[in-house]
Specification:
Elements (H helix, E strand, L loop, with lengths): L7 H11 L3 E3 L6 E3 L1 H20 L3 E2 L5 E3 H5 L2 H7 L4 E6 L2 E9 L4 H11 L8 E10 L13 E11 L2 H23 L5 E4 L11 E8 L5 E9 L3 H6 L2 E3 L5 E3 L1 E8 L1 H10 L16 E5 L4 H19 L4 E3 L7 H10 L4 E5 L1 H5 L2 E6 L6 E4 L3 H26 L1 E3 L3 H10 L1 E4 L5 H11 L2 E6 L22 E4 L3
Parallel strand pairs: 3-7, 15-16, 15-17, 20-21
Antiparallel strand pairs: 1-2, 4-6, 5-6, 7-8, 8-14, 9-10, 9-22, 10-11, 11-14, 12-13, 17-18, 18-19, 21-23, 22-23
Helix pairs in contact: 2-6
The structure holds zinc ion.
């Protein structure tokens, strides 16, 4: 495999295939998610779904096909999505009277039904979430990061006023997304607001969590939008308020996708392959039995017993008893596939009541007692999870530069992020992108107050704080 340090992009493209996460789909830009990759998605999905429900949302499902006229009702929305749409013009053997769009996102169809279901302030807030696939035609596809079809959840809510809807927008960002990224994926994300140029098509305000990959590029890992009354006006989502006046609802939407898997790979992976955070690892511990002849059966049986004890303790354990492969091959294979802990179990270990533990991030192998293995491994997994978050945080901080000098800015965004003052104009953002490849990733919520001159054009700075710039996926 191409080393990460040599060619990050080639490393990534080879790794996703070799680790059996995905295969290329038959249509350009599509992906087949293989069981090992899908299990990672299920683990993300389970935690996200728990948090989504815990914060009061309910799951529902809306149709894949949306009448084209729905998208045309919100001018900015249709303009933003038009280049990415897949449109069905023929079905049932004839041309359709109205073309149907394969959903790129579901604000429009859900807006139509919100209008139907909401009539009084008593119907608010309405808190929906949908697990679905969406299609956005992709000209420069990359597995997990940009695929023509991807899986996600999309939350859609309606509130009586801006205060409620903005609180919801921030709740999704902080309590659902940032938490999932930090606690589950060990990704130290920055929460912030998008500049006008980077806003979702049709939104009043867009917020995102931004993560730094090991090549210094930024990955937008989740977005939360305050849509104001834009979609309520387009779809006539109105309610009778307590004072009997008819008012427009304020709506929001938020989404996190299978792109998160790409984020995990690029946040933690190394030259040997994947490094999976234990909470997202399909197998947290892999046991490799080592024994020949008569001893093989005995060692395999002991490995199975150990795996069952680990499973009973809530650890996802797997015994690699593929007979035709050498232990050395298996060690490399599970390293490539990012398993946090490997246990080697041979006849001598068994006789001594121990197994040899190897952590994915190196260090000497260490014998651990079989009797105490479940408790010891649970501790090791928790420590490994913490280590990954610390390591990624240190990497991000070491590759982030706060600067007021253009030369330093261009150097910083070549290898990581720059924190810089900006005038807030779209033209200036475009000029920065043209010169350096970097875009405004977000205006961090917890940024220190700062003001002065724009990093590029000398106009007075906007936002009252520094903006994160970086090259992005
Ligand atoms: Zn400027």
């Amino acid at each position: 495999m191409t080393p990460q340090s040599e060619d990050f992009s080639a490393w990534y493209n080879e790794l996703v295939i070799k680790a059996e996460l995905v295969d290329r789909g038959p249509v350009r830009g599509t992906m087949v998610i293989r069981p090992y990759g899908y299990r990672i998605w299920e683990l993300i999905q389970a935690e996200l779904d728990r948090l989504i429900k815990q914060t009061g949302h309910q799951n529902a499902y809306f149709p894949l096909l949306i009448p084209q006229s729905y998208l045309q009702r919100e001018a900015e929305h249709v303009e933003g999505f038009a280049p990415e749409l897949a449109v069905v013009t023929h079905a049932g053997g004839k041309q359709l009277e109205e073309p149907l769009v394969v959903r790129p996102t579901s604000e429009t169809v859900i807006g139509e039904y919100m209008a139907k279901w909401i009539s009084s302030y008593r119907d608010l807030p309405l808190l929906l979430n949908q697990w679905a696939n969406v299609v956005r035609w992709e000209l420069r596809p990359r597995m997990f990061l940009r695929t023509t079809e991807f899986l996600w959840q999309e939350g859609h809510t309606a509130y009586a006023d801006e205060v409620g809807a903005m609180a919801e927008t921030m709740l999704a960002l902080d309590e659902i997304y940032a938490r999932t990224a930090r606690e589950l994926a060990a990704m130290p994300v920055i929460e912030g607001e998008k500049t006008a140029a980077e806003r979702f098509a049709g939104a009043v305000r867009t917020f995102s969590i931004e993560a730094m990959m090991r090549d210094g590029r930024a990955l937008q890992a989740g977005t939360s939008h305050y849509l104001g009354t834009n979609f309520a006006r387009a779809f006539n989502i109105q309610y009778t308020a307590e004072d009997s006046q008819l008012r427009y609802a304020h709506t929001t939407s938020f989404g996190m996708t299978t792109r998160m898997i790409g984020g995990v790979i690029m946040t933690h992976g190394d030259d040997k392959g994947l490094v999976l955070p234990p909470r997202l690892a399909p197998y947290q511990v892999v046991i490799v039995p080592i024994g020949r002849g008569d001893q093989a059966a005995e060692v395999s049986a002991a490995a199975a017993v150990l795996a069952a004890r680990l499973a009973a303790a809530g650890i996802r354990a797997h015994v690699d008893d593929r007979p035709q492969l050498s232990p050395g091959f298996k060690f490399n294979d599970w390293e490539l596939r990012g398993v946090p802990i490997r246990l080697e179990l041979g006849p001598r270990d068994l006789a001594a009541g121990s197994a040899l533990m190897a952590l994915r991030l190196g260090g000497a192998k260490e014998p651990i007692s079989l009797a105490g293995a479940p408790a010891r491994l649970a501790d090791e997994l928790a420590a490994f999870q913490d280590l990954l978050l610390e390591r990624a945080t240190a990497f991000r901080d070491a590759h982030t530069v706060s600067t007021d000098e253009w030369d330093d800015f261009t150097k910083a965004v070549a290898t990581g992020w720059a924190l810089a003052l900006h005038c807030g104009t779209r033209e200036c953002e475009e000029e920065i992108k043209a010169q350096t490849g970097a875009t405004a990733r977000c205006i961090p919520l917890d940024g220190e107050p700062a003001s002065g001159r724009c990093i590029r054009c000398d106009l007075p700075s906007a936002y009252g704080k520094r903006v994160i710039f970086g090259r992005a996926y």
